[in-house]
Every structure is written in structure tokens, then in C-alpha cells.
Amino acid sequence: MLTVDFSRFPLAPGDRVLDLGCGAGRHAFECYRRGARVVALDRNASEIREVAEWFEAMREAGEAPPGASATALEGDAHALPFPTDSFDAVIVSEVLEHIHEDKSVLAELARVLRPGGRFAVTVPRYGPERVCWALSDAYHEVEGGHIRIYRSDQLLARVREAGLRPYGSHHAHALHAPYWWLKCAFGVDNEKALPVRAYHQLLVWDIMRKPLATRLAERALDPLIGKSFVAYATKPHLPATDGSAAEPAAGESAGERV
């Protein structure tokens, strides 16, 4: 299940991509399939081992085109082990809400992104996340849990402060918001509650089958209750000066600016 929309975040074969806080690797795998040279980085050693195993399985199965490459690394988001301007694209999905010093992480991501490169960030959306916090303390008061809820304008301000220029945004995963509300209402660790089990089965069916009805329903509901807020930005070739805007990125019109 992808949160980043690759029609808004285009990749070219051979692009060097960093997926920071890759988790189970969903976005890294998609970038690899698209022919990128992917680095998936996470602080969780066990997840990195699993991602590396999946990369190898994909390689053996021929799922990635010639020229693509994939590496899984354990690392610190506050001190990335990469040279400045070394990536064509950077993804950080459902990560920043876990990190106290989010500004320093965004600064590091902006540092390693090359001028003209693209940046995608996703976080839980304010409204649906507020409902979860109201229904359950256990949802967020856990080690490594969510420490803040972003408003969209707050996240975009953070992105701009890091020296990046937003060019678009949207919401995603509307069908998943009610599932998390149910989990919070019945207990986040209670997998036996009938409403939770039934809704989970619906989501699995939707992910596996991708029926038109649920695709259309989610598209209509995303602006209202989409679980994730997704924003895209570029790194300007030259810093903007007072009274003048940086030139648009390739493929961007003035109307796409946020």
C-alpha cells in the first residue's frame, strides 16, 4: 500500500533515491521496481534485515529492470552517512511524527538532496489523528509512538524552513481512518473485537483485489477523512532572494505552488 503518488513524484531509471525510515520497505520496493538506485535506511535493525532479504528476492525474481540497485542500511536520521547533494529524490513516509527533533532531520534530508531533486513527505493527517488520540491514550503513549500531530500548514512551514519548496499535496488512505478509530475504541491491542476483525478483512480484500467501487469511494473520501497528509517539494537550484521566487522546477507550473 503506497502513500506517495508516483504520478506526482516521478522517477527516472537510474535515479538515486533515499527512503528514510523505510520500515517494511513499501516505497523502497516500488522505487526499485521503477529502475531507481535505492537506499533504504532505518534505525530498526530487524526491519533492515528483512528489507535486504526482500531486495535480494526481488533481484532474483527479476522484478527490477537492468541498472536498478537496492541497498538496505541501518542508520541515524540526524546524521545521514551520505555526501551533500547525493540523491535525486528523497522519501520520508510516516516518520516525522515519531521524532522529537524533526527540524534537524528535515535539514539533513535537504542536505543530501541534490538541487532540482524531489522530496516527498507523509504524516498522519490532523483530523483523523485527533480522533485516534481522543479515543485512546494507548494509541500514542507508547515507546516510539507518535509524539505530535501536524497541521498541514505546520508541516509545509517545516519543509520551507529546511530550504525546500513545496509544489503539491493531497490526502490518502481514507478507508483506513475508520479502521484505526475502531481499534482505538475497542483497544489498540484487541484484535478479536468483531468490528475490528471485520473491517480488517475489508481492507485486506481491498488491497488484494483493488475493486473499482472501493477505489472510487476512497478517492471521494480522501479529501474528507484521508488518514495521511502527503506533500511534495523540490530543492531549488539557487536560494531565493528577498522579493524574488526561485525558478519553477521542471514540469511545475505556477498554479502547482503551495
Automatic annotation (TrEMBL):
Keyword Methyltransferase: yes
The keyword Transferase is assigned to this record: yes
Key words of the record: Methyltransferase, Transferase
CDD domains, alphabetized: AdoMet_MTases (cd02440)
GO function terms (MF aspect): S-adenosylmethionine-dependent methyltransferase activity
Gene3D superfamilies recorded: Vaccinia Virus protein VP39
Alphabetical list of Pfam families matching this protein: Methyltransf_11
BP GO annotations: methylation
Chain ranges of the Methyltransferase type domain: 18-120
Name by which UniProt lists this protein: Methyltransferase
